[in-house]
Amino acid sequence: MVEETLNTSNKPKAKTNNNKPKSVYSWNVTDVQKWLRRHCSDYYQLYVENFIQHDITGRTLIRINDNSLLRLGITNVVHREAIWREILKLRLKTDIMEIRDLQRRNTNNMFYDYSIA
């Protein structure tokens, strides 16, 4: 009975509060597969199993380097460079989001400090 009532609605799942995208650090293996399919579609079918077998999560993905990709079995230099480029873009995007969050928090803290005075 419990299983039937868990997710019977057709409503889309909320990403997180304020409709912010899910943090890369909290991505599971399935989230990484979605990222790989979206950003590396030319190589998705070739390497998705490698990512699954090595249990690549978001936290792992943004720490991967060229040697890691080679150890994952991506031996084709062109494929590896293309995937590496997408990982670097993801890192940059993640860093920018973290900086914005820090700025937002600092701005909120400054406003809070002034409102107390």
From TrEMBL:
Domain SAM stretches: 27-93
GO cellular component, as recorded: cytoplasmic side of plasma membrane
InterPro entries from the UniProt entry: Aveugle-like_SAM_dom, SAM, SAM/pointed_sf, SAM_domain-containing_protein
GO biological process: cell surface receptor protein tyrosine kinase signaling pathway
Pfam family, one: SAM_2
Highest taxon of source: Eukaryota
Biased composition (Low complexity): 7-22
Annotated region described as Disordered, given as residue ranges: 1-22
Name of this protein: SAM domain-containing protein
Source organism: Rhamnusium bicolor
Lineage, opening ranks: Eukaryota, Metazoa, Ecdysozoa, Arthropoda, Hexapoda
